[in-house]
Amino acid sequence: MKIADKTSMQRSQPSFDFQPIKFDRRDLAIAIVLILCAGLASYQGSLLAQSVEQRDNIWFAGDSALVFTQVTSPESDVYRRVRHPWFPILAPALVYFLKITSGVDSYTAWSLVTAGVASLWIGMLFVLLRLIGCRQLDAAIFSILAGTSASAIFGFVAPECYPMSSITMLIGLLFAAIVQYRKLSILWYAVATSLTLSMSVTNGFPGFVLSR
Fold first, then answer.
1. Which of 76, 73, 78, 54 lies closest to 64 in space, CA to CA?
2. Is residue 180 in a domain?
3. Which of 27-31, 86-90, 165-169, 191-195 has the highest mean pLDDT?
4. Is residue 194 part of a domain?
5. Residue 69: CB partners within 8 Å, gap ≥ 6?
6. Is the CA virtual torsion 41, 46, 52, 57 positive or negative?
7. Which residues contact 82 (CB under 8 A, 6 or more apart)?
8. Alpha helices, DSSP H, located in the chain
9. Is residue 62 part of a domain?
10. Other C-beta atoms within 10 Å of 56: how many?
């Protein structure tokens, strides 16, 4: 009797096996709406907060002024390259590219870069939620909740390295979800691990967990 009860309990336990997710046009439509809304909200919020972002100890004791100086003058702070290896390279390059192609000022260029990062971030989050088994409505709701959280509201409007760092963390999580569906070579694990620590060294932890 006890053996039978134990067997029935084992059978009643939920299964965490990933089932293949088929993306359709509704997924694409939801993702596009989320991407556009996140990008627009980030850009408008960045312009509204411009008066306080470039002063230290205003944005939760952050160093927004230092980060803004770094993305406009990359040679100004070499020390940050130790903690954020790719950020002093990629962020100024994107700002400079927008300045020479569109003729906007430095702050507007950075606002556009941040808006693009916010759009990419929420799109990746929606895909991740779908890959781990969330239904379309659930994935959309959780994405909206994430996009309206305190971290997103303050992080995606200020000159900070956290938005790009969170992108690399999402890359690691997406990779972990993808390998549940298909087998990848060890080279992809090395790439995913490297990307997680590219923007912020402390964010390399998810990558090291993946490599295990």
1. 54
2. no
3. 27-31
4. no
5. 76, 77
6. positive
7. 201
8. 2-12, 25-48, 50-53, 64-72, 80-83, 87-102, 106-131, 136-147, 150-155, 162-178, 186-196, 205-211
9. yes
10. 11
Quick check: 39 and 115 in contact, CB under 8 A?
yes
Under 8 Å CB-to-CB from 204, ≥6 apart: which residues?
A: 193, 196, 197
Residue span of the structural domain in which 114 resides: 23-160
Taking the CA atoms of the chain, what radius of gyration do you get in angstroms? 20
What's the number of domains the chain is made of? 1
Tokens at residue 116, please? 């693009």
Distance CA 198, CA 201 (A): 7
The string of pLDDT tens digits covering residues 43-74 is 988 887 765 555 555 555 566 767 777 777 65
Render pLDDT for 95-128 as a digit per residue (tens, 0 to 9). Answer: 888 888 888 888 888 889 989 999 999 999 999 9
With respect to residue 185, please indicate whether it lies within any of the assigned structural domains: no
What is the pLDDT at residue 99? Answer: 86
Asked if 193 and 201 touch (Cβ cutoff 8 Å), the reply is no
Measured CA to CA, the distance from residue 14 to residue 132 in angstroms comes to 15
The candidate with the shortest Cα–Cα distance to 199, out of 159, 169, 157, 175, is 169
Which tokens belong to 93? 């390059």
